[in-house]
Amino acid sequence: MKKLLVVDDNQAAADGLVRLLNALGWDASALYTGKEVLEHVRIYTPDLVFIDIGMPDMSGHDVIVGLRAHGFTFPAVALTGYGQAEDKEKALAAGFNAHLTKPAGMEEFKTVLAELL
Fold first, then answer.
1. Residues contacting residue 102 through CB under 8 Å, at least 6 positions apart
2. Whole-structure pTM value
3. Domain at 3-116: CATH code
4. In a designed cystine with 75, which of 4, 34, 68, 97 is the match (CB 3.0 to 4.6 A)?
């Protein structure tokens, strides 16, 4: 079973997405800060990660740049309220493989998972 990681400082949103992903048959878990991710992936390497862009401790852009700098190549999806074309371009340039605008629906998650895994 593929392991998914959800990173969002909004714990209710992260936990809700984990429940949805688990209901769809994935092995999903959540972290709530960018710093946790950089430490945690050394122990638990996910097959795909969803990362919120607007976190207070470090932005999702900083998280993905840090992950890529440490050699992690697993697919990453920016999950954010920022949905303009330039926001998507910035996310892809930072190292994300895809960009979903909140609130994303179940079909959007199914599509991005099918494309990236």
1. 13, 79, 80, 81
2. 0.95
3. 3.40.50.2300
4. 97
